[in-house]
Amino acid sequence: MDVQQLRSALGRFTTGITIVTCCDAQGQFVGLTANSFNSLSLTPPLVLWSLRSASPSMAAFEAAPRFAVNVLAEAQVELSRRFASRNAEQRFADGAWALGPHGAPVLAGCVAVFECETLSHQIAGDHRLFIGQVLACTDAPLPPLLFQAGHYRLLGEVL
């Protein structure tokens, strides 16, 4: 399998953009941009996302009992870029961040926020899958930020 061809083909699938967050052992906010978020089950309410095994944030997410998935709106594209950069310092300097009632950082102005309890995480290839039970969620009628073929996209007209 040609890895570049696989990456190109997978990139044709349009995804939403999220910032997944948790608190580390010292209570510091940890977060990163991810487009690997999916619903898994309605009963019980489960979601999943994946993180590259070599990620510097891995230890914090493995240890965190809770995480939040903040689904970004079009207006939050710069936050997505900030959280996708290798520079972890100052990621939370912009945006209206607060510690959610379930113990993970949540961002105001998102399309949706899912506060989750970590149920499991397991290695799958070069990533670790995280499965969480949704404890609370909110949503807003805002246009979502999308990602496709290596670029941010806008939703466009509803047909």
Task: Write a structural description.
By secondary structure, the protein is mainly beta. It has one domain (3-9, 17-153): Electron Transport, Fmn-binding Protein, Chain A (Pnp Oxidase, Chain A). The protein contains three helices and twelve strands; from the N terminus they run H-E-E-E-E-E-H-E-H-E-E-E-E-E-E. The strands form three sheets. It has a seven-stranded antiparallel beta sheet with strand order 3-2-6-9-10-5-4. It has a three-stranded antiparallel beta sheet with strand order 1-11-12, with no helix packed on it. Strand 7 and strand 8 (105-107) form a beta hairpin. It is globular and about 40 Å long. It starts with a helix and ends in a 6-residue tail after the last strand. The mean pLDDT is 94.
Secondary-structure map with pairings?
Elements: H1 3-11, E1 15-16, E2 18-23, E3 29-34, E4 38-41, E5 46-52, H2 58-63, E6 66-71, H3 77-84, E7 97-99, E8 105-107, E9 112-124, E10 127-139, E11 146-148, E12 151-153
Antiparallel strand pairs: 1-11, 2-3, 2-6, 4-5, 5-10, 6-9, 7-8, 9-10, 11-12
Mean pLDDT value: 94
- Cα end-to-end separation: 37 Å
Helical segment count: 3
Query: Which second-level CATH architecture applies?
Result: Roll
**Rg over alpha carbons:** 15 Å
Summarize the structure.
The chain has helices at residues 3-11, 58-63, 77-84; strands spanning 15-16, 18-23, 29-34, 38-41, 46-52, 66-71, 97-99, 105-107, 112-124, 127-139, 146-148, 151-153. It is mostly beta strands.
